[in-house]
Amino acid sequence: MPQLEDNSRLQTKRQKRRKAWFLNIFIGIVLLAAVTVAYQTFFATPTVQEQAPKKEVTKKEEPKKEQKMKKEISSEKPESKPKEKVIENPAPVVEDQKVQVPESQSPGVAEAYTNPSWKPIGTAQSEPHVTKFDSSSQDWKEMTQAISYALDIPADTLTILFLGNNGPNKAIGTVQAKDTKERFKVYIEWVEGQGWQPTLVHKLM
């Protein structure tokens, strides 16, 4: 009988120990889970939140980088060359050095004169020169400029009555001033590489 009681006591103690052991394990698991949850709550979440602003910063920085790249590319583009402007040679200044030429006067001529200061007016044409009596040609334009230069009267205030051939590389033009109605006959000749030059003016009656 005493042995049976001892055995029952031992079994009871063992059962209590097992229960305590299982209880301790369960408590340990619960505590571990609680610690894990607490760690994730207080430590893992802030790291995610901290990463989000970094992405925003990089997004904000990207446009700045793109702008720098665009500026560098634009600076590397070859500069456009300015268009060349065709500048016409202005007519030389006429000095008042008229020289009367009485022997060249003929009926209908009120005055005949030349001027030693007359020079070729310049040209945009190339050699060999071919005289063109076409009102739309560059040669015609330069001939009218030479006549205007000899008379010292603007070309747009002159009416061209006649402009024709007067020999090899020579021309003769008859014009009328629009304001005074005065008429002139102007003799011009071509100077190679330099353009038309006046040689004689007849002021008509």
Considering the chains and any ligands shown, give keywords for the structure:
alpha+beta, single chain, 6-stranded antiparallel β-sheet, 2 helices, 205 residues
Which helices and strands, and how do they pair?
Layout: H1 2-76, E1 99-100, E2 109-114, H2 138-151, E3 158-165, E4 170-177, E5 183-191, E6 195-204
Antiparallel strand pairs: 1-2, 2-6, 3-4, 4-5, 5-6
Number of helices: 2
Low-confidence stretches: 45-53, 81-87
Average of per-residue pLDDT values: 79
The gross shape turns out to be rod-shaped
* Structural classification: alpha+beta
Distance between the termini: 175 Å
Largest sheet: 6 strands, antiparallel
Report what the structure shows.
With 205 residues, this protein is an alpha+beta fold. It has 2 helices and 6 strands, in the order αββαββββ. The chain has helices at residues 2-76, 138-151, and strands at residues 99-100, 109-114, 158-165, 170-177, 183-191, 195-204. The protein has a 6-stranded antiparallel sheet with strand order 1-2-6-5-4-3, covered by helices on one side. A hairpin with an 8-residue loop joins β1 (99-100) and β2. It is rod-shaped, with a radius of gyration of 55 Å. The termini are far apart. Residues 45-53 and 81-87 have low confidence and may be disordered.
A few lines on this structure:
This protein is α+β, with helices and mostly antiparallel strands and 205 residues long.
